[in-house]
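Hello forum,

I keep getting stuck at the same step: I have a sequence, I want structure tokens, and every attempt I make locally crashes halfway through. Rather than fight my setup again tonight, could one of you with a working pipeline run this one for me? It's a single chain of 307 residues.
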Amino acid sequence: MLAKYLRAEGLKFELPVSEKVILGFIHWLAFKRGLKAGSISGYLSGIKKLHIIKGAEEPKIRTELVNMVLEGKKNMDAAARLSGPNSERQPVTLDIMKLLKAQLNTWQASPWDRQTAWLVCTLLFHSACRGGELLCKSNKVFDPAVDLLRKDITLTDKQGTGKSTLQLRIKTPKESKDNRAVIVDILESGSAICPVRAYKKWNLMAANMDRNSPAFCWENGKPVTARAMNTIIKGRLDQYIPGHGISVHSFRTGAASMMAELGYGEDDIKAVGRWSSQAFENYLKLPRTKRIQTLRKMQYNHSWNNQ
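Reply #2:
Ran it on my machine without issues. Output:
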């Protein structure tokens, strides 16, 4: 992204990066690319890491002036959220999931693309994963060290229970302090929107798929991106929910809302969604155990399985 900015401005790529370049880069990201303060901060961290990897003199990226600009952008983002027409992101509900399923079944696309899109929706909803944890950022290239691959999804059968579990190996979880991968477990519910059921149907079609390729690709071989999914979701829901503002991130919001409606406490919700907080720091000691226990309770909850 820094290289794109420098090319656009006719500047030379040189390390170490100066404060002037950093400030121009922030402005470009904020007002030309439309990014929020959190995303911009992530790019600055990447630039710092780039210097370390290249063995260049490490610059002081976050100078006092840079921090002031970022704080100002953060305040602008907050004001925009409060004043915007969709100040609260609408969460995906069970009814919306059912509507999406019906609309994807009538979508004028190949059976492969329809099943892939539906599987992505069910996984986003039930895993509370971030879109970037499941989907590639680009439909042209992918990074096997970061992106979810076919081999990072495992289906295990639970002997004696008749239930299966999907395991997703998320390699760059946002909440990880040391960049360690985490395993996200998704239990079979048997409901109409069960992700395990969707996966089993999809997996039959993906028998010859390269296990080192991105986990989700369209029939034309291009990786599925959050942008593509947002376009599909908009096309399927606009007729029924005008101005909905539902996106890939709305599934994560929906999972939290559903758990709250079912009476789960804050710690359980934060554990399943891997949201960070002081309570979450304690939970990190046994992350998978906590998530599995909570998800198991959810799957056997009558209202969850039968709606």
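Residues 64-83 form the longest helix (20 residues). If your local run keeps crashing, start a new thread with the error log.
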